[in-house]
């Protein structure tokens, strides 16, 4: 692949990520682990949605340098009912999805089809990563890893086996999703390209637009 100049990522990449999956699969717990590095064993169902922010840096997956990611996490309630009426409001503007199942409850994997398709109805196809959470309870496993991998393949992606309780693979799963988004969805910044061709080098740091998205 052609190397993209690092000027492309002078500014942070903003991305809204939605967490989807059935109730109690561990969406809130994974967000809390990633953002605050903490875990609570009590189950407090999310009502509506909880929004969290996290900044982190990655090696640019398409070229030189580092990329700063400004992630806004929408942790959405897994209980059905009136939530379904609000899908449009929740999913609008979503750039990428973490679709989470609980490896100790079989139906939570199958239901990810419903969840991902609900997002796609609003956003079109966006990058997804499948998470098999509660891997610390793998002695109670109710699905094969091969089934998780097959679902991931269907959605053109990979999967991670995570534990919000121990922290296993949590950070890596977020990083993998951000990399997929950058590689698949971000076009080189038109602003950066214009600056390269038309603006004197001393002025190059003054552009107003950050990375732009492919249609
Ligand atoms: N052992 C174990 N328990 C977990 C893990 N992740 C979450 N839990 C527990 O599972 C329960 C549900 O976790 P939540 O994070 O609230 O689940 P949720 O998906 O946000 O649920 P809703 O908000 O109702 O949709 C809580 O009791 C958590 O402590 C994990 O990786 N391992
Ligand atoms: Mg929750």
**Bound molecule kinds, no repeats:** guanosine-5'-triphosphate, magnesium ion
Helix content: 25-40%
Give the number of helices.
6
Principal-axis shape: globular
- Mean pLDDT, to the nearest integer, reads 86
Radius of gyration: 18 Å
Span between N and C termini?
20 Å
Strand content of the residues, in percent? Answer: 15-25%
Please count the beta strands (DSSP E, at least 2 residues each). 6
Spatial strand sequence of the major β-sheet: 2-3-1-4-5-6
Largest sheet: 6 strands, mixed
Q: What is CATH's topology name? A: Rossmann fold
* Proper CATH architecture: 3-Layer(aba) Sandwich
Unreliable sequence segments: 1-6, 190-215
* Content-based structural category: alpha/beta
| CATH C-level category | Alpha Beta
| Count of folded domains | 1
Give the ordered list of helices and strands. EHEEHEHEHEHH
CATH superfamily descriptor:
P-loop containing nucleotide triphosphate hydrolases
């Amino acid at each position: 692949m052609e190397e993209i100049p690092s000027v492309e990522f002078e500014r942070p990449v903003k991305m809204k990520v939605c967490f989807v999956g059935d109730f109690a699969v561990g969406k809130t717990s994974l967000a809390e682990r990633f953002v605050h590095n903490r875990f609570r064993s009590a189950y407090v169902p999310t009502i509506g949605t909880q929004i969290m922010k996290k900044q982190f840096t990655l090696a640019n997956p398409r070229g030189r340098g580092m990329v700063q990611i400004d992630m806004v996490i929408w942790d959405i309630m897994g209980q059905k009912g009136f939530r379904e009426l609000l899908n449009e409001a929740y999913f609008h503007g979503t750039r990428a999805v973490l679709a989470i199942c609980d490896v100790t409850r079989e139906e939570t994997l199958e239901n990810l089809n419903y969840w991902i398709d609900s997002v796609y109805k609003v956003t079109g196809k966006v990058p997804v990563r499948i998470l098999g959470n509660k891997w610390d309870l793998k002695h109670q496993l109710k699905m094969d890893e091969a089934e998780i991998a097959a679902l991931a393949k269907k959605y053109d992606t990979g999967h991670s086996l995570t534990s919000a309780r121990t922290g296993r693979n949590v950070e890596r799963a977020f990083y993998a999703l951000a990399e997929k988004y950058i590689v698949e969805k971000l076009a080189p910044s038109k602003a950066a390209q214009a600056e390269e061709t038309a603006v004197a080098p001393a002025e190059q740091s003054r552009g107003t637009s950050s990375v732009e998205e492919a249609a």
